[in-house]
């Protein structure tokens, strides 16, 4: 005679087996890896911490984060901390002595040997759909492998276009660059005590919220594995951030956020650098980083990867870029 418990087990089996079979079918399909990278130009992490930024805070709190990331390694003792080298390092995964875009003023340019990570993604899988929407046209000088490669007239236009692409198309990797925080810094000062700078961060936070909402509203979101990365190309001091001010900690220090199922929740131990952004995006998309590429970046904040180290392989003790080449 069946006990009460065995009847429950039988009932559970009858109900759950078809349910599991259905779920199992869905689980067979590995979620599609996707990356959204939001670049906030000139955002100091101490100002971000002071601003009312619920959307960025939610991404940081729910994911991996560092508020002590660096835009240059210690060994580079003399370099421009301007936007060209900053974005190029972040998007290529290599430092200026390798990619060649060492300053904006004298326009020594990108050598192409360390391409935008979209280029490496396209080599890995040409079918990946890549989208770059930027508000500072200079970034296009180093952008390769972008299916959508557009300059938007201002942050609001960039956000609207980004939302349109996320809603109506099927992008795999999206980079959206927002510039208003940098603009407020140059106009009034890069300073957490200045209301104008804080206001620009708070407005940018609202834009970030809208972009993230567009990702989550995608009809296929449940079958997708989004990694949302947010970082900045430099901080600032006074009303600037370059011209040999590379020793200023407030300029060199930025934040790094990685949010999504692949992110290891919590503050990232070790040292994150902006070159880790490209490496993290590539790793999430399934690209095995080839040592022959000699990238300086490593995956940061991802489950299953080691803590990013302060020193990266084969680093010389010190590198002089600007003074030596004047
Ligand atoms: Zn910048």
Write down the CATH class. Alpha Beta
User: How many beta strands in the DSSP annotation?
Assistant: 10
Q: Beta-sheet strand percentage?
A: 15-25%
Give the N-to-C terminal Cα separation: 93 Å
Summarize the amount of helix as a percent range: 25-40%
CATH architecture: 3-Layer(aba) Sandwich
Task: Give the ordered list of helices and strands.
Answer: HEHHEEHHHEEHEHHEHEEHEH
What do we call the CATH homologous superfamily?
Alkaline Phosphatase, subunit A
Features:
two-stranded parallel ribbon; alpha/beta; 326 residues; globular; binds zinc ion
Q: Which helices and strands, and how do they pair?
A:
Blueprint (H helix, E strand, L loop, with lengths): L3 H25 L3 E9 L4 H6 L3 H8 L2 E7 L5 E3 L4 H10 L3 H4 L17 H8 L5 E5 L13 E4 L3 H14 L4 E6 L1 H9 L6 H22 L7 E8 L17 H4 E7 L6 E2 L8 H9 L34 E2 L1 H4 L1
Parallel strand pairs: 1-6, 1-7, 2-9, 3-10, 4-5, 4-6
Antiparallel strand pairs: 2-8, 7-8
The site of zinc ion has 7 residues, from helix 4.
Brief overview, please?
With 326 residues, the protein is of the alpha/beta class.
Report on this model:
With 326 residues, the protein is of the alpha/beta class. It has an eight-stranded mixed beta sheet with strand order 5-4-6-1-7-8-2-9, with helices on both faces. Strands 3-10 form a two-stranded parallel ribbon. The protein has a single domain, classed as Alkaline Phosphatase, subunit A (3-Layer(aba) Sandwich), CATH 3.40.720. Mean pLDDT is 90; it is low at 15-26. It has helices at 4-28, 45-50, 54-61, 83-92, 96-99, 117-124, 155-168, 180-188, 195-216, 249-252, 276-284, 322-325, and strands at residues 32-40, 64-70, 76-78, 130-134, 148-151, 173-178, 224-231, 253-259, 266-267, 319-320. The protein binds zinc ion. Residues 41-42, 83, 86, 182, 233-234 line the site of zinc ion. Zinc ion (ZN) binds next to helix 4.
């Amino acid at each position: 005679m069946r006990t009460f418990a065995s009847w429950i087990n039988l009932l559970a089996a009858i109900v759950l087996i078809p349910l599991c079979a259905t779920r199992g079918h869905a689980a067979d399909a590995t979620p599609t890896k996707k990356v959204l990278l939001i670049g906030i130009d000139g955002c100091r992490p101490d100002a971000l911490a002071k601003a009312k930024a619920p959307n960025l805070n939610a991404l940081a709190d729910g994911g991996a984060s560092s508020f002590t990331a660096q835009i240059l390694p210690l060994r580079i003792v003399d370099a421009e901390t301007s936007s060209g080298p900053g974005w190029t390092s972040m998007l290529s995964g290599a430092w200026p002595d390798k990619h060649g875009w060492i300053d904006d003023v004298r326009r020594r340019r990108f050598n192409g040997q360390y391409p935008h990570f979209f280029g490496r993604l396209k080599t890995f899988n040409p079918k990946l759909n890549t989208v770059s929407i930027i508000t500072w046209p200079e970034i296009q000088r180093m952008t390769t492998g972008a299916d959508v490669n557009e300059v938007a007239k201002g942050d609001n236009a960039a956000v609207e276009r980004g939302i349109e692409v996320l809603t109506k198309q099927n992008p795999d990797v999206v980079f959206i660059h927002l510039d208003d925080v940098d603009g407020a810094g140059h106009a009034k000062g890069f300073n957490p005590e200045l209301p104008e700078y804080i206001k620009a961060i708070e407005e940018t936070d609202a834009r970030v919220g809208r972009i993230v909402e567009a990702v989550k509203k995608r009809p296929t979101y449940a079958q997708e594995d989004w990694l949302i990365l947010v970082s900045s190309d430099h901080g600032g001091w006074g009303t600037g951030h370059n011209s040999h001010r590379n020793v200023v900690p407030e300029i060199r220090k930025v934040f790094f956020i990685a949010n999504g199922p692949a992110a290891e929740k919590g503050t990232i131990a070790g040292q994150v650098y902006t070159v880790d952004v490209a490496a993290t995006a590539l790793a999430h998309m399934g690209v095995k980083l080839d040592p022959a590429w000699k990238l300086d970046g490593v995956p940061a904040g991802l489950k299953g990867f080691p803590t990013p180290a302060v020193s990266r392989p084969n680093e010389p003790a010190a590198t002089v870029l600007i003074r030596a080449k004047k």
